[in-house]
Amino acid sequence: MLIARIEGCTHVIGKSQGYLGLPVRREMIDCAVNGPGTPSMTTAWHPTPDELAALNAGAAVHVQLLGEMHPPIIVGVGKPPL
Fold first, then answer.
1. Exposed, middle or buried: residue 47 (CB in 10 Å: 0-12, 13-18, 19+)?
2. Which end of the chain is more exposed for a tag (fewer CB within 10 A), N or C?
3. Taking a C-beta distance cutoff of 8 angstroms, is the pair 12, 30 a contact?
4. Which domain of life is it from (predicted)?
């Protein structure tokens, strides 16, 4: 996956730690468990042509989280580019 610049980006994380830098949009969401006003961070990704072909062939999206604690996450699909 290729890092994308998320619409409404509020900051970039990880660059000072040696990573490429991940554009993030901080926002409040209505969460079914935590209720309205739940803080969240959203990022955007574009599949490479090979990954897109694999997805279209039925491959799953894998999400890896570094560390030993798994925070609650939401995985979804953004709007198509204009």
1. middle
2. C
3. no
4. Bacteria
